[in-house]
Amino acid sequence: MSNKDTNNPEEESLKDKVEDILDEAIEEADNKDSEEKSSDSEEDGVSEKDQLKAALEKEKDKFLRLFAEFENYKRRTSKERVEMFKTANQDVVSAMLPVLDDFDRALNEIRKAKDKELLKGVELIYNKFKETLRAKGLEQMEVKEGDSFDADIHEAITQIPAPSDKLKGKIVDVVEKGYKLGDRIIRFPKVVTGK
């Protein structure tokens, strides 16, 4: 029992200290409550002001997000519109390529006939047509005999024995011209390669 008695005074003194600390904390809390109640009218104004500031910040943030979302929407629709015009333009220009090919063939035949006036008239129409398509973004791909064959930009329609060793694995003849619209190939040049 003496052990209990010796431990009890220490435990009791520890309990007393804890109770004293708790009592002091409770008194401080009560004092703060009474001070807050007396200055309640001042605090309502400040807390209301803080609430208004918080609401304003929230609305500003909401507005900025909505504005950014609208800007992204405008940019996206503008980009889609440009892509749509390019695609629509591509369809029209692609449809005109056979007409351009026919003009090339007609000019070759008229040159053989040696009719200068007819050649001059057809060349005027051909150049006007070609310039109109160029203004819309059409570019002819430069491919000639002796160029290296590249499967990414050329379409090989056949392979023949090379007339010389220099033309092995290279382009021997261009059967149909290729065209680009901007950076995009809309018709690959059809070529004959040498083996």
TrEMBL record:
It is found in: Cytoplasm. GO terms for cellular component: cytoplasm. Its main location: cytoplasm. Residues 1-52 are annotated as: Disordered. InterPro entries: GrpE, GrpE_CC, GrpE_head. Keywords: Chaperone, Cytoplasm, Stress response. One of its GO terms (biological process) is protein folding. The keyword Chaperone applies. GO terms for molecular function: adenyl-nucleotide exchange factor activity; protein homodimerization activity; protein-folding chaperone binding; unfolded protein binding. Residues 29-52 have a biased composition (Basic and acidic residues). Participates actively in the response to hyperosmotic and heat shock by preventing the aggregation of stress-denatured proteins, in association with DnaK and GrpE. It is the nucleotide exchange factor for DnaK and may function as a thermosensor. Unfolded proteins bind initially to DnaJ; upon interaction with the DnaJ-bound protein, DnaK hydrolyzes its bound ATP, resulting in the formation of a stable complex. GrpE releases ADP from DnaK; ATP binding to DnaK triggers the release of the substrate protein, thus completing the reaction cycle. Belongs to the GrpE family. PANTHER family: GRPE PROTEIN, GRPE PROTEIN HOMOLOG, MITOCHONDRIAL. This is Protein GrpE. It comes from Salinimicrobium marinum. The gene is grpE.
